[in-house]
Automatic annotation (TrEMBL):
Domain of life (superkingdom): Eukaryota
GO biological process, one term: germ cell development
Keywords of the record: Developmental protein
The protein, known as: Germ cell-less protein-like 1
Listed InterPro entries: Gcl-like
Native source organism of the sequence: Stegodyphus mimosarum
Length: 222
């Protein structure tokens, strides 16, 4: 029996319910670890799987090209939160792994500038026999993305001594298009703590009459 279903674990259910569970299952290893740990009941994730499958179908079939005109409140409710530490002021590039509805986000840093690229493999990078249109990310020529990006420098006590942050922004990117997301406005001391929030799909609305069972579960699991 999962720990949270036991008498000992019951007092902790409220804390675990507050987690953004949908962001804990973006890789097949995540689900394997959750089952192996046997802490969170697997049936907690069933409504989330239903929502994610529905959203994936909407993206795949062109019904959802990403968030546009979404309120700040909705963004903060549904966005995925990512972090990273840059130890040196040298060139860096990385992606946060996990399923992202076909939007492969690659971040580049060089000389105080952070750039975001919607990465897609070129024909030369495809495996032999691979159809370039098999990829979910290629179903839509242009995709919308909302983000908020922040860079923080801390002292030895972990307190912020300088920072640069963006507001919540929306961009529309085509294949391999790149945009600058942040430039240092002041000199920053390394190492840097990177904080990024991304919203890749359009949030389900409370008044959406399509798939009411999906609407109900989306309001209960955020």
């Amino acid at each position: 029996m999962p720990f949270l279903s036991t008498n000992c674990g019951c007092p902790y259910q409220k804390a675990f319910r507050a987690l953004r569970l949908k962001h804990l299952v973006v890789h097949h290893v995540d689900m394997e670890v959750i089952e192996s740990d046997n802490i969170i009941p697997v049936d907690w994730f069933m409504p989330i799987f239903k929502i994610q499958w529905y959203q994936m179908l909407r993206v795949e079939q062109g019904a959802d090209k990403g968030p546009n005109q979404v309120s700040d409140e909705e963004f903060m409710k549904d966005c995925v939160r990512c972090g990273r530490v840059l130890n040196t002021d040298t060139q860096h590039s990385w992606r946060w792994t996990g399923f992202n509805f076909g939007f492969d986000i690659v971040i580049f840093y060089a000389r105080g500038t952070f750039k975001l690229r919607r990465y897609l493999k070129t024909e030369n990078e495809m495996r032999p026999g691979q159809n370039p249109y098999d990829s979910l990310s290629l179903r839509s020529e242009k995709r919308h993305l909302m983000y908020r990006f922040g860079v923080f420098s801390l002292n030895k006590d972990g307190k912020i001594i300088s920072k640069n942050e963006t507001s919540i922004k929306t961009v529309s990117l085509t294949e391999n298009e790149q945009v600058t997301v942040l430039n240092f406005q002041t000199e920053m001391k390394f190492p840097l703590l990177i904080s990024a929030n991304f919203l890749l799909t359009t949030p389900l609305q409370s008044n959406d009459e399509i798939m009411p069972s999906i609407r109900h579960t989306s309001e209960g699991y955020v």
